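Dear colleagues,

I hope this message finds you well. In preparation for our joint manuscript, I am sending the PFL family protein (Agrilactobacillus composti DSM 18527 = JCM 14202) sequence together with its predicted structure, so that both groups work from identical material. I would be grateful if you could confirm receipt.
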Amino acid sequence: MLDMVAVPGDTPASTISGIIADESAIGVQNNKATAVRVIPATSQKVGEDINFGGLFGHAPIMAVNPSSAADFIARGGRIPAPIHSFKN
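The corresponding structure tokens are as follows:
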């Protein structure tokens, strides 16, 4: 499960959307609420470190898959809320 991921600032919005959709799918599959914080770090390159200051800490800038997720995201769709009433 992802928590906080810093990515290069030039990462396309469709790639960030794909990361969020993947995390959401994991939550639906496991019947759990999940969240991910994707932070586009402007003017930062892969491998550099970004400092958020104070108690917020720091994070390395992570590489993202160069393949485009635009076609997947453009399909649209809806991720339903978990239905717990079907369980006995």
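For the figure legend, we might mention the following. The longest helix spans residues 13-29. The mean pLDDT is 84.

With kind regards,
E.M.
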